[in-house]
Design brief:
Helices cover 16% and strands 33% of the residues. The longest helix has 18 residues. Helix 9 packs across helix 10. With 977 residues, the chain is α+β, with helices and mostly antiparallel strands. The strands form twelve sheets. Strands 37, 38, 39, 42, 43, 44, 45, 50, 55 and 56 form a ten-stranded antiparallel sheet that branches. A nine-stranded antiparallel sheet has the order 46-47-48-49-57-54-53-51-52, with helices on one face. Strands 1, 4, 5, 7, 8, 9 and 11 form a seven-stranded antiparallel sheet that branches. It is built from eleven helices and 59 strands.
Length: 977
């Protein structure tokens, strides 16, 4: 009774204040300076640190009046905030928040947040936290209607900007919107409701289109703050951003609901469209119409991605609990479409980079649109020039033959379209000599040089009057198989300016015949040539029984000239063998490609940052590039710390699959001048000051492995040849234990919920494996810090259980029977979901907003989706020997063995197809379990293979900035230079 009376009095007081014309909050227009507000130069909740530069009232910049609040965090490492005096509210009612914000700096992140508090000032909940981003322009409205939570009697309004942001705030107001339907008014579940999506079934890449979605509420209705979420599958960030502000701009979204309803359009993670219900709650059966790319106000529509894709679709989800987890509806009717290539604008000639005179070679011609999508094959006839003979093949493609040797300009024309390739034609190749001994040797075979050991062979054929091309072979039984080529050990351009990135700059240096020597157990071939007056020396060294060939190239420019760009070498992996149709490729830290997959893809990566051809060197975890095929594997390794000009380290690495010039291979190159601070990625630098006449050198290793080798085999070979230096431990073992215990017991522990924060952005709660680790840490702690004592940490772990706990906890507290019971239930639940082929599809769909968003389709299958389920089955099988679990586990291991890329284990954070470390680790653990069950050494070998795959996510060279460290996923993570 007393509480109801107090609430009525508060409401009456608030109504009286509003009726009197007073602002709520006080001085929301900042006409009276900072009265009623606390300005800080740091985050909310810290002691006031007023700063005229960081937080101030700016006269003459108001939206309607004469003043506005300016918060400026440019050049600062922390946010800058201002907060109001407490405003009285009544719980259970909606409060309409409005603020006008003007960004003064690009990509300004800001917040207009509500801090709900009880009568004593204790924090209850935040609403509308960090939901704003603006670009310089006019004032824009920001806000919505928010329901005061149970127990709230006052609210503090917080205005803030993130570091590097600057904004003006004006006309801040809060008004009573009336009673809200409580969340508990009816049973609610996320994913409730139905949807119909209509629109074009085909849209041209990069063109504009419009879709209409109608969402109908299910039995849960839709509460205030609830979401309707729409996303496209497969995921691509190369679409217009959805927005509900400017009807004339791309991506405008118009929302219509029942009369009097109000919605807010937001951009979720990975380009998702979020329609948030502002006011009032919707009832079952009520519908919301959403026009995506609305053109009625003069806007062009929603721009489609520039990469062609088939069988795309819209997926609709709903958040009927207003907790941010908008789960997919059981079924969305309609919404399927294709993104088709644009009209063709050019041809691409696909053929090997190095071909033999007089022998037929396969080639194909592809028509490309302006974005690089492959269109329909060009209509015949195709006219060829540069080849001695050209014949169309019955199954498609062409057979070409070349008469003269040396570089050739090969051109194809179909109508008005044309394409060019520039292969190097060499004299007919002899077979490399058979060498069953690991001791290397070298010799001239007529006009062709050869270096051979028991595992790798290099041929140096003549190309007319000169040398230069190098052909790489791997041992195949008693013979040799070609796996790649190098058109020239050095591709060189001289000058002073920065060369263009594409096409690959420079000309291939032509050399004299190789000088071959064998001494000290090694075989060497030295080639000498010149280009533009520059002297070039290339030295190849083959060591006993090694799959790696050392290459050292030195260029000495003539006086007054400098090396503008040196590629040494530009390796063409797969050339003359598997071509661009690889069985797996790796550029550690940036690309981990499945069979046939292209590099620098925009799958889940914004179009503007998808380019990963020439990355910042610190993004590279292992200085290695490889590609595998049925015939074998070849790649390139180097030392990033080498001083390419005697002073500066960090030569640049280039990786493209397929090759950019249409050659039927993968391009891998090492270039100088190297990286310099401030150089944008995917750019080549100009020579440094004083570089005229300065010699430039590059050292690398060519890696060649036999057929059947995989990408992890290449990582293993590299790590065997380059053992890691001793790690530098920053603290003692006891100090490390104390740090871990403090992180679990203090930093992540949330006493109010008796659980831990396990990741930023996730709700705190109980985690069984974490509880077990905390108990183990507590038992190992030494006396000293009372908060980290064994007794305290153990009590915390047991407090977190709050019930039966899980398998890990039960094993530690002496209840193995209950542990096995829980584990059996989990294992049999996974076994019931196992697919006929032994794998598991992705089943659980997280929310569509923030860090819990999933970037996977419900039925996607990747290594991670299989290994996540399989680990539970194998753990139970290893502990009990249950025959059914053993059979299911072994079927699962057979399925795991067919994957080439570790992906699909971090769907809440990165696209499902994105390579990630967790998938490799789970797969290695699964095969270790399989070995424990069967003692089959093949399972141990597979565990080692996936451990090596995981090693590609670990920084294994030592720049001061990032060694040793791990990255969770290979997507080209940001790096500030």
């Amino acid at each position: 009774m007393i509480q109801r009376t107090l609430a009525a009095l508060l409401l009456a007081a608030f109504a009286a204040t509003a009726a009197s014309g007073a602002e709520t909050p006080a001085n929301g227009g900042f006409e009276r300076g900072s009265a009623g507000w606390t300005l800080t130069a740091g985050p909310y909740g810290r002691p006031a640190q007023g700063s005229a530069q960081a937080a101030r009232v700016a006269k003459g910049f108001g939206r309607a009046g004469s003043a506005a609040l300016q918060l400026d965090a440019r050049g600062r490492s922390a946010e800058v905030d201002a907060y109001s005096a407490p405003v009285p509210v009544v719980a259970g009612r909606g409060w309409r928040l409005e603020a006008w914000v003007r960004a003064l700096s690009p990509k300004s992140d800001y917040k207009v947040t509500l801090d709900w508090q009880d009568a004593s000032g204790k924090h209850l909940k935040y609403d509308n936290d960090w939901r704003g981003r603006g670009e310089p322009g006019p004032f824009a409205r920001h806000g919505g209607v928010f329901v005061a939570p149970e127990g709230a009697s006052r609210v503090v309004l917080i205005l803030g900007v993130q570091p590097r942001s600057c904004c003006l705030f004006d006309d801040v107001s809060l008004a009573d919107a009336g009673p809200a339907e409580p969340i508990a008014a009816r049973p609610r579940r996320n994913g409730d409701g139905s949807a119909v999506v209509t629109g074009p079934d085909r849209v041209t890449a990069g063109a504009y289109a419009t879709w209409h979605a109608t969402y109908t509420c299910g039995p849960s209705g839709l509460p205030v703050g609830g979401l309707i979420a729409l996303r496209r599958m497969p995921t691509s960030l190369d679409w217009s951003d959805p927005q509900g502000i400017d009807p004339k701009a791309p991506g405008y979204v118009r929302v219509r609901g029942p009369q009097g309803s109000d919605f807010q359009v937001e951009r979720g993670q990975a380009g998702m469209l979020l329609v948030r219900l502002v006011w009032p709650a919707l009832q079952p059966g009520q519908a919301v119409e959403i026009t995506i790319g609305d053109q009625s106000g003069g806007g062009p529509g929603l721009r489609a991605q520039r990469t062609a894709v088939q069988a795309a679709r819209w997926v609709v989800g709903s958040d009927c609990k207003a907790d941010g987890d908008a789960l997919d509806l059981a079924r969305t009717e309609g919404g399927r479409f294709d993104v088709a290539p644009d009209r063709p604008v050019r041809l691409r000639v696909v053929c090997p980079s190095v071909v033999e005179a007089g022998k037929s070679v396969g080639a194909r011609v592809e028509a490309l649109d302006r974005w690089g999508n492959v269109c329909a094959a060009p209509a015949p006839p195709v006219r060829w020039s540069g080849a001695a003979a050209a014949h169309a093949l019955p199954g498609g493609g062409y057979a070409l033959a070349f008469g003269r040797t040396g570089p050739v300009r090969l051109e194809a024309r179909a109508g008005i379209l044309a394409g060019v390739a520039e292969p190097v034609v060499v004299d007919p190749l002899p077979s490399p000599p058979i060498n069953s001994s690991p001791r290397p040797y070298g010799r001239m075979l007529g006009r062709c040089g050869a270096l051979v050991n028991g595992r790798v062979a290099l041929l140096f054929p003549s190309a007319g009057s000169a040398y230069g091309p190098v052909i790489l072979y791997t041992r195949s039984g008693i013979g040799w198989t070609r796996v790649g080529s190098i058109p020239s050990p050095a591709r060189l351009s001289l000058g002073s300016g920065a060369p263009a990135v594409s096409p690959i700059p420079g000309v291939d240096v032509r050399f004299g015949p190789p000088a071959i020597t064998v001494r000290d157990g090694r075989a060497e071939a030295v080639l000498r040539g010149s280009e533009g007056g520059a002297a070039v020396v290339a030295r190849f060294t083959v060591s006993p029984d090694s799959p790696m060939v050392a290459l050292h190239v030195t260029v000495t420019p003539p006086p007054g000239k400098s090396v503008a760009c040196l590629y040494a070498p530009l390796l063409r992996a797969g050339d003359g063998a598997f071509g661009s149709r690889h069985a797996g490729a790796l550029f550690p830290g940036l690309e981990y490609l499945a069979p046939g997959e292209a590099s620098s893809s925009d799958r889940g990566v914004a179009w503007k940052i998808r380019d990963r051809r020439i990355p910042h060197p610190y993004k590279i975890t292992v200085p290695l590039m490889v590609a595998a095929g049925e015939q074998g594997l070849c790649g390139l390794a180097w030392d990033p710390n080498q001083r390419w000009d005697g002073r500066n380290p960090l030569p640049l690495a280039r990786f493209e699959a397929p090759s950019p010039d249409g050659a039927d291979n993968l391009a891998m190159g090492l270039s100088a001048p190297g990286f310099r601070r401030g150089l944008p990625e995917n750019r080549l630098p100009a020579p440094p000051p004083g570089a005229a006449g300065m010699a430039v050198s590059l050292n690398c290793e060519l890696l060649v492995l036999p057929g059947g080798s995989t990408v992890p085999d290449a990582v293993a070979a590299w790590s065997a040849a380059h053992p890691m230096p001793a790690l530098r431990h920053p603290r003692s073992d006891p100090a490390e234990m104390a740090l871990c215990a403090r992180a679990f017991a203090q930093t992540c522990w949330v006493p109010g919920v008796q659980g831990w924060y396990t990741a930023v952005g996730l709700k705190p709660g109980y985690a069984d494996d974490l509880a077990a680790r905390v108990r183990q840490l507590g038992a190992a702690m030494e006396p000293g810090d009372a908060a980290l004592s064994a007794t305290n940490v153990t009590r915390q772990a047991m407090d977190a259980v709050g019930g039966p706990g899980g398998p890990a906890t039960h094993l530690l507290v002496g209840d193995p029977e209950r542990s096995m019971e829980a584990l059996r239930g989990a294992a049999y639940g996974r076994m019931a979901q196992q697919l006929p082929d032994g794998g598991w599809a992705f089943r659980h769909v997280f929310g569509a907003q923030g860090p819990r968003a999933t970037l996977a389709e419900p039925d996607d299958v990747e290594l991670g989706s299989c290994a996540t389920a399989l680990e539970t089955v194998l753990t139970y099988a290893a502990a009990t020997g249950d025959p059914a679990a053993v059979r299911a586990g072994l079927r699962g291991l057979e399925r795991l063995d067919r994957f080439a890329k570790p992906a699909g284990a971090e769907s809440w954070e990165v696209p499902f197809t994105c390579p990630n470390l967790r998938a490799a680790a789970l797969a290695a653990r699964c095969f270790l379990r399989g070995y424990q069950i069967t003692q089959d050494p093949a399972h141990l070998a597979s565990a080692h293979r996936w451990a090596m795959a995981g090693l590609a996510f670990v920084c294994l060279w030592e720049p001061a900035a990032n060694w040793p460290a791990t990255i969770p996923a290979s997507t080209g993570r940001p790096w500030r230079t």
